[in-house]
Design goal:
Layout lengths: L1 E4 L5 H13 L3 E4 L11 H4 L9 E4 L2 E4 L1 H11 L11 H30 L8 H22 L14 H14 L7 H11 L2 H8 L5
Parallel strand pairs: 1-2
Antiparallel strand pairs: 1-3, 3-4
Bound molecules: glutathione (GSH).
The site of glutathione has 13 residues, from helix 1 and helix 3.
């Protein structure tokens, strides 16, 4: 059985759990990271030297980096290609948006999330939160422009490219209620939010 190490309120663990649910793959999730600890234990470091979650264990094979895990699951465990596009250019675009999520979208949201969700009100640094909100809004505007042209990030169909980006979008709506109009991103997000696998592993888990 596939095993996933990681707490369920981690957005990077959520990517993996959401993908597993989309693919209907039985799995076992083991709490680790945050208050659950374990990530600095020698046996965990042996499978993930970053001491971060998630980590996937598939028999003798282990893998870390959430987006890589999502791509692996789709390529290795789904002959029907429900998440991985067969067309190489569409696949490359889906992977591009996953890379963008890691390199631009998530870093832009980090201080906003940590400031508002994980820091007591009297300890918050307003300047850092404001700067993060502005950067995150710029990134969301870029996503909105793409979604004015395509139904999903990589084209007409839902792909693994949508998974990491949609989790940051979910957080953006919660963290920036007074955001500028982003009608295309909102239309896309509302379609995604109706997916049972997203509801089970992302929107049902309160931000913490
Ligand atoms: N780029 C890595 C980032 C992993 C990461 O930062 N994980 C966070 C949770 S979202 C973590 O492990 N934090 C420390 C902890 O939970 O103990 C990935 O996508 O897997």
């Amino acid at each position: 059985m596939l095993k996933v190490w990681g707490r369920k309120n981690s957005m990077n663990v959520q990517k993996v759990m959401w993908a597993l649910a989309e693919l209907g793959l039985p799995n076992e999730r083991i709490d680790a990271g945050g208050a659950f600890g374990q990530t600095k234990d020698p046996q965990y470091l042996a499978i993930n030297p970053n001491a971060l979650v998630p980590t996937l264990v598939d028999g003798d094979f282990t893998l870390w980096e959430s987006n890589s895990i999502v791509r692996y699951l789709a390529a290795r465990h789904d002959d029907n290609r429900r998440l991985e596009p067969a067309d190489l250019q569409v696949r490359a675009r889906a992977q591009m948006w996953m890379d963008w999520q890691l390199s631009v979208l998530q870093p832009s949201q980090r201080d906003l999330f940590w400031g508002l969700i994980r820091t007591a009100p009297d300890k918050r640094v307003a300047a850092a939160i404001d700067a993060s909100r502005a950067k995150n809004t710029n990134a969301m505007a870029m996503l909105d422009a793409q979604l004015a042209r395509t139904t999903y990030v990589a084209g007409d169909a839902f792909t693994y490219g949508d998974i990491p980006v949609a989790i940051n979008a979910y957080r953006y709506w919660a963290l920036v209620p007074d955001h500028p109009p982003l009608p295309h991103a909102r239309r896309w997000y509302d379609t995604i939010a109706a997916r049972p696998a997203f509801a089970a592993h992302v929107s049902a888990v309160p931000l913490s």
